[in-house]
Amino acid sequence: MQDEIVEVKIQKRSIHLIVWLVPFIALVIGGWMLYRYYSNLGPQIQITFQSSGGLEPKHSYVKFREVKVGRVERIEILKKGVRVYARVNKDILPFLNETTKFWIVKPEIGLGKVRGLDALMSGAYIQMSAKLGKRSKFIFQGLEEPPLIEDERGSTVRLQASSSFALEAGMPVYYKQLRVGAVKKIDLAPDGQKVHIYLFIKHPYDRFINDTSRFWNIKSVRLELTDEGLEVRMGSISQMLMGGVGFATKDLGQKSRISLQRPFILYPSKSEALQKKLGLPREQFVRFLLDFDAGTGYLGIGSPVRFEGYKVGEVEDVVSFFDLEHRRIDSKVLIRLDVSAFQNSPKISGMDALRKAVQKGLKAKLEQSNILTKSLFVNLVFEKEGGQLKPLANGVYALPTLPYQKGKLLEHLDKILTKLENLPIERALDAFSRLLEKNQEPLRQSLLSLHRTLSSVRKLLESNETKALPKDLHATLTQLQRALREFALLARGYDANSTFKAQLTQTLYDIDRSAKSLHKVLLKLDKKPNALIFGD
What is the chain's alpha carbon radius of gyration, rounded to the nearest angstrom? Predict the structure, then answer.
């Protein structure tokens, strides 16, 4: 059987256009999505910080008005600090200008300060604060702390103090027990002597701040031995736990005046802030140097400077040296004096008013403030001879002083008690007893005669004839009887065995014993002034 050969015909197959339609549509959609992505892609910004603060590329975000508006793309290490590259949304482009500020938010928890709790779960992020502007900007220097003033309405108040009183940013500010602001920033003054505390007071409470406002630390607990006794000063329990600043304004009728160039004083306690003020309401402190040749051993740092009972300053430092040639201790005392206390009008400056007072005899002297502790304070008094203020370096002036005179109270008491001890009490009692014994018989005869006279007067008053006399005469006789009776009782009380003699004798002996005991106590106080408080 012969094989049959089948002829194979090859025919070209036509490709349907629908096969290419699907990838074409996918390509168009992808291109459209790519176009939308790049068309909506915002600008890239650069922010420089001292450290990354926990930021992570591709994870940490940028937040503006509580809305996520960008994401950190990468972080570059610099010689000093880091540079963060972040891509932000296109719609915030009008806010990228000279008013824009960036800072890193991370969780912070402490007494009186809870901040960045949302970063506790999501991690650190960059917070943005800005206003609309015309000139765009894409390179920024980040802040290490939140800005002093944000978008909230209010005013910034600057305080000045000798220390920070353990205040921290975020602690509350109270006015009449209402929370009206917060501590925003704490800086050391350029001269290193003072601390500047910046407060942000919300509107409308900032209108209650003027020249009569006083600020104080409400966290402190102070134990003080004052002229009135031992005092414990503290705030409420909640305020002590949280800390913060309180303020009060004496005259709300004055116009609000807030200037960062004129700081308010931050006092350690409310009692010190609200104490009576001499002169103009706004303090103006100037440093003065005092020279003393004795007594400064009992003058402590922080001791008050007073004028006519008003506290007008405090002691800042005491430097002492022993002078072997004269056998004394020479000291230089640096005080901080409120010169506004000497102003009676804003037309004259505090320094000019003080200068005139010094020319008329105002001088500084050391005086004892407490007999138990022998503590001293600086008292400003007027003397006949005037003086001059001498300018020294760094804005310090030399103030005239008077020599120190040791307190004479104990010395006077000792002299009085010595005189009491030297009184001839026993001889006086013996002489008094002999006087009574010598005159005992005449005194007894006088008493008998007086008794007979009283009996006669009594019979006379009881008779009907006497009762018939005019009322005035009868009353006179009655008064005579009463006077004679009182005289008899008095005379009877002065005989040798009378109660008067016994009581007088006992009293004189008690005075003698008390004088001796008190003399010993004064000697002990002179050697150890705080013995009454802490014992031997």
Answer: 46
